[in-house]
Write a structure and sequence with these properties.
By secondary structure, this protein is of the alpha+beta class. The protein has 3 helices and 4 strands, in the order αβββαβα. A 4-stranded mixed sheet has the order 3-1-2-4, covered by helices on one side. The longest helix is centred in the first third of the chain and has 38 residues.
Length: 110
């Protein structure tokens, strides 16, 4: 590694310097732990996933393209919440059912 200085004043200076850094590191650890705790609480207290979501295409004239159960891993960010009454109507209008969450089976639509 490296050799420490032999005299007491420089040793005390090094101890002060590294003590200061240890304190800053400890503060950063406490802050990171607090952020993680708040993130976990936010996930636990956050709103529940909606029952049904409609996925939309990209662009200015975005049109509905696929129906998902709320919280489906295949649903993209371009989505809107819909009601249970709107879901079977969307399937009847030809909107594709997600092959992952199979909400059409849950709705009783074959």
């Amino acid at each position: 590694m490296f050799d420490l200085p032999p005299d007491l004043p420089r040793l005390r200076t090094l101890r002060t310097w590294y003590g200061m850094w240890v304190g800053r590191i400890d503060e950063a650890i406490v802050a990171a732990e607090q952020r993680e705790k708040e993130r976990q609480q936010g996930e636990e207290r956050g709103p529940p996933a909606p029952d049904w979501v409609m996925e939309f295409s990209i662009g200015a004239g975005a049109r509905p393209i696929e129906l998902h159960v709320g919280g489906c891993c295949a649903a993209v960010k371009r989505q809107r919440v819909i009601t249970r009454e709107q879901a079977p109507a969307a399937l009847a209008d030809g909107i594709r059912a997600c092959i992952h969450c199979r909400q059409d089976t849950e709705l009783g639509v074959l």
